[in-house]
Design brief:
alpha/beta; about 45% helix; 8-stranded parallel beta barrel
Amino acid sequence: VSLNAYSFNTELSNYVNSERSGDRMTIFDLIDFCSIHNIPAVDLTGYYFVGYPSVPKDEYIYEIKKYAHLSGVEVSGTGIRNNFANPDASARAKDVQHVKDWIDVASKLGAPVIRVFAGAIPAGYKEENRSEPLGWIIECCKECVAYGAKRGVIVGLQNHGDMLRNADETIEIVKAVNSPWFGVIVDTGNFMVEDPYVDIEKIMPYAVNFQVKESPFGNENPIRIDLARFMRIINQSGYKGYLPIETLPIRNRVYDPHTLVPAFLKEVKDAIEAEYN
């Protein structure tokens, strides 16, 4: 298992945005949390590096890398914000450069994979014209993936409920890009389908990392993930990589990641134990 930093989004954002009120947390604090709770790895999302979206100085990257290593915590991935479905070609080019810049960061950090998005559904989008934004996404991904291959970093495309609503739409792009350095960050909570477990199973051959959510039916849904069924899918697929968990605020629940993350972590570890032993 691993932990996605977004679970502590509020505290980490408060720190990088220099908020004076509310709880604050640094990347180093997050690594300490992982070490204390025996979480062997962490996905360090780019948003929580001081100065994002600007590329951090090498000294800062290497300090984080060293601290994680000495804390017994691996960096299982990172991720950034981008929109490859933007109708503005210059904006897309800027985002491609942003991804390349952070591929360099990932390489220096020792992160094997970087998460990218397909992008938000463009204004005035019509389903019959899907091929146009799809072409933009594929073109951008190809350029990023070629760069990632040179730097030894896998590019992972997250199904984020945006232009990518299900397994088939996500796989279509992976097949079009057609590179061993490109795959899917499987977001278990963002398949916009009746039975998300079917789509999780379908997408497994392309998985390069995960965001394991508490519910497979969206961020606000209280229905819990069937971890026994999920782990059976993982086991049968032959996937051996990390399973980063991500907890999120749910309506009518006090959100405290300091208690919710360890609780969900225990559920996931118990499910792994039950499936693999």
